[in-house]
Design a protein that fits this description.
The chain is of the alpha+beta class. The protein is built from four helices and four strands.
């Protein structure tokens, strides 16, 4: 809702109110929240190791299953790995993927 006060030529003050129906936007926001919660639940509880990385070669997230599989006790340690430098024999090979 937007309200704008204004004065007419007689000096009387009026208020212009503008209302916008945001029902559909709120429904979409709730659907997005539910979808994100579903993704997070799956990501955290799936039995296989899953990670998310950037195209620049940085790990952004990893689930507990992956950390356990690879023997990491500390998620931050895993996230600090430079994919191209630390996981490829030649960092240039990363460009192929």
């Amino acid at each position: 809702m937007t309200e704008i006060p204004f004065e007419n030529e007689d000096g009387a003050i009026y208020k212009l109110s503008i209302y916008r129906d945001i029902t559909e936007r709120k429904k979409r926001e709730e659907m997005l929240r539910a979808s994100e919660a579903d993704f997070r639940n799956l990501f955290e509880h799936v039995a296989c190791g899953v990670f998310i990385s950037s195209k620049e070669g940085k790990f952004l997230n990893a689930n507990h299953a992956l950390l356990d599989m690879l023997g990491y006790d500390n998620k931050e340690e895993f996230l600090n790995i430079d994919i191209a430098k630390d996981l490829y024999v030649s960092p240039e090979e990363r460009q192929n993927f």
